[in-house]
Give the backbone structure.
Amino acid sequence: MFKNYLKTTFRFLLKNRTFTLINIIGLAMGTLCCLYIVFYVVDQHSYDKQYNDAKDIYRVTSSITMAGVQENMATASPPIAPAMKNDFSQVKEYTRLVNTIGAKEHLLRYKDKSFYENDMAFVDSTFFKVFTYHFVAGSAKSALMAPYSVVLMAPVAKKLFGRNGDPVGKLIQIDDRYGNHDYKVTGIVDGSLGKSSIKANMFVSMSSGGFGRFVLENNTWSGSNFTYTFVKLYPDASAATLDKKLPAFLKKYGQQQLQELGMKKELHLQPVGSIHTTPGYEVEMSRTVSPAFLRLLLLIAGLIQLIACINFMNLSTARASKRAKEVGVRKVVGAGRKDLVKQFLCESIVLSVVGVAVALPLLLLLLPYLNRITGADVGLSLLGDYRLWLSLGGLVIMTSLVAGSYPAFYLSAFRAIKVMKGNLTNHLSAVALRRALVVFQFALSIILITGIVIIYSQMDFIQHKDLGFKKDQKLIFTFYTPDALNGAPAFIHSLKQLTGVKAVSRANNYPSQLVFNDNSLYPPGGNKNTAQDIHYMLTDEHFIRTLGITMLSGRDFRLQDSAMAIINETAVKGLGLNPETAVGTMLYSPHGPGIQYKIIGVMKDFNYNSLRDQVSPFMLVYDKNGNDLPQVIVSTGTGDYKTLLTHIKNIWQNDFPAVPFTYSFLDDDIQKQYKTEVTMSHIINSFTLLAILISCLGLFGLAAFSAEQRTKEIGIRKTLGASMPHIVRLLSKDFLMLVLLAIVIAVPVSWWAMNKWLRHFAYRVAVSWWMFALAGLLAVLIALITVSSQAVRAASANPVKSLRSE
């Protein structure tokens, strides 16, 4: 019986090639999209699951409130972890990781090789007891026990030592702002066990002096929230119970310090496996992904597959009259309804299997391109990944049932006597369902098109918004080593002599980069309870002019200024001052009498962080020595950057022959802040295109079938004098009405969805009517082009041929 089903199925599919091709292409495209999204989402949820006893590892996070402003920090103060190990029996082990604050790049040297490497971290000797890494060389137990020992990630080791040889025990030189030291390589690890939210290429023993020693000796419980803190609990310990004990624990050790600063602080335990999919924490080590975004992707995947299924359902029910006599004959010779249902379901299963068979090689072929779109590195093993086969099986079953169920039951319900007498008409319910499904397809497409329009508008708004400073034609150079920093004045002097260089400034940071420095400050008459938390940058006397920041009152920095500050408008308001009279006011800190600044100017607010955040209280502090100003900002006035950079490179190689020449453009660094949004727009664009193509395939098939059914009507109309435009309008009208209905449904849905997305930005574009009008117009044009192609073909046919067979 099954063999007969297959034989009949293949016979029908080969006979109706257009119907078959449309469905196979649609199902293949939907399956391709669906499979990739499923694997992308699985990949994003796979972070930090590879560690031994990963369910028992937690990160200690901090919630800090000052002056009514709350921040959720991914970090904690240095002494918290060891104290938790000492006070709580539930804690089996702890470890801490600290980024090299202020030292972004590190110059590595081994023999004649030297290059910059980023993401170095100081870690406790217990790091590899808590986190499981695959050691290519060396031992996890002893890797970080000795001072000045380092464990390298495999790609870094390969660049230093090549592919052959054992690097364990060899000395390398690491030169950065913390100094120039020799480190002993005690281990090489790779990421083969799984993906990690811990972003580090080099793990340096915390006992290696300098900044590591500072962390070990730090006893600050209120501030110094720069330490990534992890605890590993015993298997039978309750994290929830321990979390409830943390308020009393923090009060025991840090109450006095917190009261002195007027700070409220809470500690919480976060499962390590949820770090990558929990956004909202400040100073994360690596980029996180929103669970809502992942759910949206899964929804899009399901809807695209559903659109392909809708094509099958629409075309199958539309062609009911073509198969009516087949059903009648089968029933007359004894076929029951169950047999017919099985037959039609068999057709949908075969089409689904063929669709998957087409999609799978396409997925493997397009995987690098899809990974570039999503910014991921999803990898598939065709034979070894059981998830692939489970996903394929699930997709075939789901698609077959969704696509084939209604046509199977609809076609099998025909009454044999009426069919054989030729009394079959399309049921109103089937026609209404087909129209509803077309409306659904295009409503979804319009929602996605609207999403593209609004996301593009927001990104364009971000790119062109006045940030309060001039970001264009600015070059950034960074001095990562003490020797280079000492040579900075001579380098800057040479830069100023070049044609095309308008101004040069030094700072410890620059817009788009995370500002770590902050202080609680209050004016005369205030106290620690009214202190305002103000972030700040250290700069020289050229910063304001180089970036084109507007001064509202007061003056710029001058040579030999000391303890002077220029504050922004938001800081002025937060301190309860007036921009016109704030100049000359002293600011004091509850941290100690030695910390005080004199306001010498008020500057207009500028967005030193991304446009997701409101401008917060901020100030510039003059650094007269320049010892802590590793960033050099060059304002240029030339279009010939190739020549200018060649001259600058020559100066660099003359001043710093052992240091690699690196630079960046300020506007590029600012744009990198929106990598998540750019990735999202690429994903939405690609999947919207797929959804539209699949919808158009279905509409094309329905239009072709409609034209086929009305061939003789068209012949008669043309014979009676109907023009081609009239025929095209006649055949297109019904479909365009459905698209217009889809627009009416899609507009409120897309308005709600995109306003919700835009709420993530403190500065955002206004949602306007033209965005929905443009999306609707595009949908109408797409539908019109799709339908008109068939309408023109039918209208241009010779009416004599269509009427001759009557």
Remarks:
- The first strand starts at residue 57 and ends at 66.
- The first helix runs from residue 2 to 15.
- The chain has a mean pLDDT of 82.
